[in-house]
From TrEMBL:
GO terms for molecular function: beta-glucosidase activity. It comes from Leptosia nina. This is Beta-glucosidase. It holds the Pfam family Glyco_hydro_1. Residues 1-20 form the signal peptide.
């Protein structure tokens, strides 16, 4: 059985404290990927997005940390907990919160349908791998300002927390408001999967960042380096991550964003009748990464060499 998680939002929340990301001190040393690790470049996939919350600098209150864990359980625990947790079923916090709100709102029973024990048992463990699409991270807080912020009843009112991304976090492109570059959120998410769900095999089915038109996509190369470095940190600490798929092979229709946001290693000229595809700098970088199976942050592609499709091994 293949796990398919459909969740169209683009945020994962994280909370915690301290700079848990170990970004290798020897930052400039090339890092090898494990022998059986697989790579890809996607043109379509399903996604679950991680909202996280921590910048390692803010002294989060107990309340904010709890709110962040609640967001995580609603945003992706909702899908992952029934399948990957030891106990199965919805996350406890989701059951409690929706039931309490429902009662408050005069419903006769919880708006969250209950699984039967047979369903819990059937769903639990029914996957071959944990398929993850991850781009960015949000911070979370909970205080009086949530009162009246959301419609009642609503999903966000049930969670009762506020997600946000600090202005000062770097965007990959100003046109994509949500795409903040947050590799530590990726690392934390991968670590959380390992710790909470008994280290299942993880396939990264989407990861990447948006840019404007242009072949010199240094930001995308930077994203690749930072996120893959974070992924290798998680692997070093025991995470069973077996595959990385970059989003995307070429520019394409990006749901809410249409054609404005470019995610491709290859640029597509939408004005040309042939929809001409041209490799960006990131295509050269990714090709070398696949060839060497090594993350070398010092590698500078020579874009004057024509791109070729080489024989695989
Ligand atoms: C709630 O917390 C946020 C983030 O720390 C802060 O900006 C806001 O002023 C707070 N609101 C209230 C009502 O305490």
């Amino acid at each position: 059985m293949v796990l398919k998680i459909v969740f169209p939002l683009l945020i994962l929340a994280w909370s915690g404290n301290g700079n848990a990301v170990k970004h290798s001190d020897s930052a400039s040393e090339p890092r090898q990927f494990p022998e059986h690790f697989r790579f890809g470049a996607a043109t379509a996939s399903y996604q679950i997005e991680g909202a996280w919350n921590v910048d390692g600098k803010t002294d989060k209150s107990e309340k904010d940390n709890e709110a962040t864990e609640d967001v995580r359980q609603f945003e992706w625990g909702q899908y992952a907990h029934p399948i990957f947790s030891e106990s199965g079923d919805w996350p406890a916090v989701m059951k409690e919160k929706v039931a309490a709100k429902s009662l408050e709102q005069g419903f006769f029973s919880s708006r969250l349908p209950e699984f039967t024990q047979a369903e819990i048992d059937m769903i639990k463990g029914s996957s071959d791998f944990f398929g993850l699409n991850q781009y960015t991270t949000a911070l979370v807080y909970r205080n009086e300002s949530v009162n009246g912020k959301y419609p009642v009843p609503s999903y966000y009112d049930d969670i009762g927390a506020v997600l946000y991304q600090p202005e000062e976090w770097e965007s990959s492109w100003s046109g994509t408001t949500w795409m903040k570059i947050v590799p530590w959120g990726f690392y934390k998410f991968l670590t959380k999967i390992r710790e909470d769900y008994g280290n299942p095999p993880v396939y990264i089915l989407e990861n990447g960042c948006s840019t404007d038109v242009g072949l010199q996509d240094d930001v995308r190369v930077k994203c690749l380096k930072l996120y893959l470095d974070a992924l290798l940190d998680a692997i070093d600490e025991g995470s069973d991550i077996q595959m990385y798929t970059v989003w995307s092979l070429m520019d394409n229709f990006e749901w809410y964003e249409g054609y404005a946001d470019r995610f491709g290693l290859y640029e597509v000229d939408y004005n040309a009748e042939e929809r001409t595809r041209t490799p960006r700098k990131s295509a050269y970088y990714y090709k070398e990464l696949l060839r060497t199976r090594t993350l070398d942050i010092n590698y500078e592609p020579d874009m004057s060499v024509p791109m070729t499709i080489d024989e695989g091994k």
